[in-house]
Amino acid sequence: MIKGEVLQKLIDFRRERDWEQFHTPKDLAISLSIEASELLEWFQWNNEQQISQKLKSDKREALEDEVADVVAYLIYLCHDLDIDINKVVEAKIVKNALKYPIDKVKGRSDKYNEY
Fold first, then answer.
1. pTM of the model
2. CA-to-CA distance for 2 and 11, rounded, in angstroms?
3. In whole angstroms, what separates CA 13 from the centre of its chain?
4. Which domains does the chain have, with CATH numbers?
5. Which residue in 5, 51, 55, 83 could disulfide with 78, CB within 3.0 to 4.6 Å?
């Protein structure tokens, strides 16, 4: 998901500032949730047309910053808990394929317990 050199830059950035002491799994999960909420805030109160316009404006950079914050905290959390993000995402795809069979859900947004 993330290039090895980018991961190393993230880890080095944190280590150089001695921030590992603050990055407990609990605090990383909290920070991830806060940053995800800030990402949502970028979309709040905008319809599809307004979002499309914002994506083409100088406001896009703010969205990209929020995406980067979410990814950084998730990467720190996975790194610190020794979670192989590619492996767990692939495993979740397999689980979801069983939970949401194509013949039952194609073109539908129902939750698995509603069909």
1. 0.89
2. 13
3. 20
4. 4-83 (1.10.287.1080), 84-115 (no CATH)
5. 83
